[in-house]
Design a protein that fits this description.
The chain is α+β, with helices and mostly antiparallel strands. Helices cover 26% and strands 31% of the residues. The protein is built from 5 helices and 8 strands, in the order E-E-H-H-H-E-E-E-H-E-H-E-E. The protein has an 8-stranded mixed sheet, with helices on both faces. A hairpin with a 5-residue loop joins strand 7 and strand 8. The longest helix has 15 residues.
Length: 179
């Protein structure tokens, strides 16, 4: 996603290209214990290079004008395999409002509209809350990616491989209900 791409706007969430002003909020979110447990080793320099300086793959999750998190949208290059891999995190103070689900639904709808037929996620197998959230959105468990993630100290942990296809939701997954 670049600045030339219009933001994606939902009831609570706006997905947009990164700005330099997002760097410090992202560093603070990635430093939260509940976030850094899964997103390990993010320094200000790494946030700059992987998020701020990568507008084609980064989408900032904005809620009420505030940086609430970010996602990577990594589209494959092979037209025979129209798949996008997504990775997402949300700051703890924004949790419990299904903001991540809305952000994913918006991004997936855009990918499907652009010809992508499958979106995959690969959360750590121990991140049970996020796995439940992804399944609530319509993702299906495909299997386990064994010894997938190197954890602090060098131990390897598995991930759950999940996917959602355009045939599951031709127009994209529904947005979470808002009360």
């Amino acid at each position: 996603m670049s600045d030339a791409v219009l933001p994606l706007v939902g009831p609570l969430v706006t997905l947009r290209a990164p700005r330099q002003s997002d760097r410090e909020p992202l560093v603070a979110i990635l430093d939260e214990p509940e976030v850094s447990l899964w997103w390990v080793g993010y320094t200000p320099e790494r946030v700059q290079s992987e998020f701020i300086d990568a507008p084609d793959v980064t989408r900032i999750i904005e809620v009420e004008g505030q940086t609430a998190g970010a996602m990577f949208v990594l589209r494959g290059d092979d037209p025979e395999y129209p798949t996008t891999v997504m990775h997402i995190f949300i700051g703890t103070r924004f949790r419990g409002r299904r903001i991540g689900e809305e952000a994913l639904a918006l991004a997936i709808r855009a990918e499907f509209a652009d010809g992508i037929s499958r979106v995959t996620l690969d959360p750590n197998i121990n991140n049970e809350g996020v796995i439940r959230s992804y399944e609530r959105l319509g993702f299906k468990r495909i299997g386990v990616l064994r010894d997938y993630q190197v954890r602090p100290g060098g131990a390897l942990e598995d991930a759950v491989f999940l996917d959602l296809t355009r045939s599951d939701f031709p127009g994209g997954p529904p947005l979470p209900p808002r009360g």
